[in-house]
Amino acid sequence: MTQNQHFDFIVVGSGIAGLTFVRDALPHGSVLVLTKKDRAESNSNYAQGGIAGVMSADDNVELHAQDTFRAGAGLCKAEAVDVLVQEGPERIRDLIAAGARFSMKSDAEGNRLLSLGREGGHSKNRIVHAVDRTGWECERTLLGDVKDHPNLHLMEHLFVVDLAVAQGPEGARCVGVWALGAPDGEPMLYTARAVLLATGGCGRVYMHTTNPAIATGDGVAMAWRAGASIANMEFVQFHPTTLYHPHGESFLISEAVRGEGGILRNRDGEAFMSRYHAMADLAPRDVVARAIHAERLLHGEPCVFLDVTHLDAEHLRRRFPTIAGRCAELGIDITKDLIPVVPAAHYACGGVRTDLRGRTDIAGLYAAGEVACTGVHGANRLASNSLLEAMVFGRRAAADVVSQAPAHTEAVGGLAPPSCASCGGDRPASRPHAVEAFRRHMAAVMGDYAGIVRNDADLASALEQMRRFENDAEMLCTLHGPDPDLLQLRNVATVGRLIIESAASRLESRGLHFNTDHPEPLDEWRHDSVVRRTGASTRA
Known about the structure:
Blueprint: E1 5-12, H1 16-25, E2 31-35, E3 51-52, H2 61-72, H3 78-97, E4 104-106, E5 112-114, E6 127-128, H4 134-146, E7 152-156, E8 159-168, E9 171-180, E10 188-197, H5 218-226, E11 230-231, E12 236-243, H6 255-259, E13 263-265, H7 285-299, E14 304-307, H8 313-319, H9 321-329, E15 339-348, E16 351-353, E17 365-367, E18 372-373, H10 385-403, H11 432-449, H12 456-480, H13 484-505, E19 529-531, E20 537-539
Parallel strand pairs: 1-2, 1-10, 2-7, 10-17, 16-18
Antiparallel strand pairs: 3-6, 4-5, 8-9, 9-10, 11-16, 11-19, 12-15, 13-14, 14-15, 19-20
C-alpha cells in the first residue's frame, strides 16, 4: 500500500458547497480537493434557476422563512431555516464581491440593480440569477477565487472509495479518505484533520434525471458505510419540467420559466394547474410534479406542455438563452411552439445528517450541499434554496473546522483498506455495457416503484429487488477489485435501497413522499426518518 499523504483539510467534491468551504479554509492550512471528474463538473454547475435571497427593500427574511416552511411541509428545522435566510444575503454579496456576473436591470433613475426573478413557492421576487446558467457562474467565480492559492491541492479524476475511520478512546473519528487514481491501481490513503463531503446528489438512481452522470450518491453511500446517520432519503424532488424529446437527453426547463409567466397545458390545451393548487403554475414543485403525473395518466400521454408563446419573444431569448438554444437544436422554437415536459429526479432533500455547523455524528466528518441533510428543506425544497444552503453551510463548516484543535492523524496506523482493494488471482475486466445495463435495471425499479407516487406493495417489492442489486454490486466490486464504474454502481444500489427503506417506513404522505395507501399527512409522523448502518430506522 502506498504511503499516505497528509493535509489539514480534505474536501470531496468541487461544487459550490465544497468551493465555499475551500475559500474560507485555505488561509488556515493545506486543503486537498478530490473530484472524480473535472474540477468544474458538479451538480452546482447545472443549476439554471438561481439563488434565493432577500436582496430588495420590498422583501424580508421572515417572508423567505415562511415560504421555506410552507414548502417543507412541517419538517423544516426552524434553527436551520433561520440561519439560511439570515446569512444567505451576505453569502450572495460575497459572490458579487468576488466577481460573479449576475443579471442586472436599471431602475427609473438609471441605477443598476439585481434583476430578481420569482419561482414556484416564493411570495416575492428574490431569485438572483445569471440568465439561465447561475450554477455555472457561481462555479466560475469560486474557482477563480481559489485556484492560485498556494495551500490548494486539487486532484481531478480521483475516485474516493471510502472514508477512513479510526477508533479512539472518544469513539469513531474520520481521519481521511481512500481514493483511487489509476483504474488498475490500489486505493491510496489521504489523511486530514477534517473531511468535508460535498459530493452532490444521487439523481442517477433514477432513469430520468436532470443530474449529470457523476450524481451517483457517493457521499451518502460512503457515510452510511462508515456509520453516519442518514436522514429523510424518501424526500426526492422531481423537477416538474424537464424537456421530453425522443432524440434528446433529459434537459432542465427552469422553474424560472413558469416564474416569468409560463403556463402548463395538457394535450387538450387546458391550463390545468388551477385544479390542483391555488397558486396554479407557481405552486411548489411536489404539487406540480404530481399534477403532471396525474394529467399524463388521465390522458394516457407521455408528457404535458409548457406554453410561453404568449410572452415577449426577445425577452425570452435574452432571459433563457441556454434553454432556447437547446430546444432550437431539437426543432422547438420556444417563442412559437409548446415545450413538451415531464418530471425527472432533480434533488435529494435528505442526506448525511448534520448540525448547524456541518458536523455529522462521526467526529472529523462534515457534510454540506446536496449530500447533507441540514434540516433546511424538510419534506420539500423551496426553489433556489439549494445553492444558498450550499454556500451558507459550506462556510459554517469551514468556520468550525478551523476553530478545532488539530487532531493527531499524521501517523494513523491500523486502518484497513476498503474491501474492494484486493482480490485473489487475476481480476476480470468489467464491461461498461454490462454495468450500464445493471444500472438501468435498478433505475427502472426505482422509477416504477419508488418514484413520484408510491404504495406499500410496490415499496416492499422494490426493497427486495434493491437488496439483491446491492448484494450483487458488492460481489462484483470484490471480484473485480477497485473499478470506478463498479464502485459507483455499488453506491447507486446502496442509495436506492436507503430511499426505499425510508419511504417504506413513513406511513403517511408529506411533501415529496406520496403514498396512495396513506394519502394524508399525520402529526405522529412529523419527524425525520433516520437510518444508520445497523439497519434500524429511528425517529428524530
